[in-house]
């Protein structure tokens, strides 16, 4: 039976792809189907909050099992649930202070199961935290707006970026794409992307700033397009930069996407580099995103 409109709306999910929000329908993916990916992509507050919630649930469950038994734990005054909860925390975390300990076969069995759960969960948590910290990431700052103006006597699309860490990213490479809507001969709408050639795709050592240049010649997909034309085709830009981080000894990647409304035609970037009287290079990052009319 075909799903009704209300069913599809109920199963719709919002996902963010770069700066674009997409609503997906008809794809049922349970939380546990890809829990490792969710743990790696969640924000740190969400990750820590989720881990704390799981810790509380586990301890509450095992404390309930102890509480249901016939005095399974020694030195529990009055057999109150809160005391079993404290013992569960000691056992699950493998702390074992020693004042409370199992004294029946039932208590030993539940404690053994909880110890295994604690060892397993701590190993899993250690791996997830290590994976989150060890993921190679480039701290690249991209200008808020691509600009189009004359450069070296030719109309050029320019995008400025900078290395926020000020370390060396060796053999940095950049690629730039144009995304736009199109209609096939059969009348089907589709989204196409075009690789925009750059004047210089590689940088031997990206440490400070780097401006990407795409000459808008007759063979460029952007040739002759105005701001209204870019809006009509719902144009967008995608930038991907990768390189070898000498400090982390890993290959790092960074990307940024732009909408057609972000592109400023007839503008150029404000100057941020200058040389001081003592020969030092000074970069003013407070003007990094500023553009001025060409």
Automatic annotation (TrEMBL):
Residue spans crossing the bilayer: 47-68, 109-131
The keyword Calcium appears for this protein: no
A GO cellular-component term linked to this record: plasma membrane
InterPro entries listed in its UniProt record: Ig_E-set (IPR014756), IRK_C (IPR041647), K_chnl_dom (IPR013099), K_chnl_inward-rec_Kir (IPR016449), K_chnl_inward-rec_Kir_cyto (IPR013518)
Domain Potassium channel: 54-133
Domain of life: Bacteria
Cellular localization per UniProt: Membrane
Broad class of where this protein is predominantly found: membrane
Presence of keyword Transmembrane helix: yes
Sequence ranges assigned to domain Inward rectifier potassium channel C-terminal in this UniProt record: 141-293
Swiss-Prot/TrEMBL GO biological process terms: potassium ion import across plasma membrane; regulation of monoatomic ion transmembrane transport
Membrane topology: Multi-pass membrane protein
A single MF term (Gene Ontology): inward rectifier potassium channel activity
Record keywords, A-Z: Ion channel, Ion transport, Membrane, Potassium, Potassium transport, Transmembrane, Transmembrane helix, Transport, Voltage-gated channel
Pfam families found in the cross-reference section: Ion_trans_2, IRK_C
UniProt cross-references to SUPFAM superfamilies, sorted A to Z: E set domains, Voltage-gated potassium channels
Name this protein carries in UniProt: Potassium transporter
């Amino acid at each position: 039976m075909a799903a009704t409109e209300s069913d599809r709306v109920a199963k719709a999910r919002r996902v963010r792809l770069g700066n674009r929000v997409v609503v997906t329908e008809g794809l049922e993916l349970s939380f546990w189907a890809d829990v490792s990916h969710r743990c790696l992509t969640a924000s740190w507050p969400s990750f820590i909050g989720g881990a704390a919630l799981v810790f509380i649930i586990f301890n509450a469950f095992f404390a309930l099992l102890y509480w249901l038994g016939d005095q399974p734990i020694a030195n529990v005054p009055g057999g109150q649930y809160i005391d079993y909860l404290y013992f569960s925390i000691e056992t699950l975390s493998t702390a074992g202070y020693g004042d409370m300990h199992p004294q029946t076969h039932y208590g030993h069995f539940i404690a053994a199961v909880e110890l295994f759960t604690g060892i397993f969960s701590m190993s899993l948590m250690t791996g997830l935290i290590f994976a989150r910290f060890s993921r190679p990431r480039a701290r690249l700052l991209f200008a808020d707006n691509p600009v189009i103006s004359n450069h070296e006597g030719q109309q050029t699309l320019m995008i400025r970026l900078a290395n926020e860490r000020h370390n060396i990213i060796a053999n940095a490479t950049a690629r730039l794409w144009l995304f736009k809507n199109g209609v096939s001969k059969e009348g089907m709408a589709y989204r196409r992307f075009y690789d925009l050639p750059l004047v210089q795709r590689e940088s031997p050592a990206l440490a400070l700033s780097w401006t990407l240049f795409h000459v808008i010649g007759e063979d460029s997909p952007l040739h002759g397009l105005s701001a209204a034309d870019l809006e009509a085709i719902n144009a967008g830009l995608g930038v991907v930069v990768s390189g070898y981080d000498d400090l982390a000894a890993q290959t790092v990647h960074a990307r940024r996407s732009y909408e057609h409304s972000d592109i400023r035609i007839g503008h150029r970037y404000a100057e941020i580099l200058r040389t001081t009287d003592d020969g030092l290079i000074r970069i003013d990052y407070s003007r990094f995103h500023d553009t001025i009319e060409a």
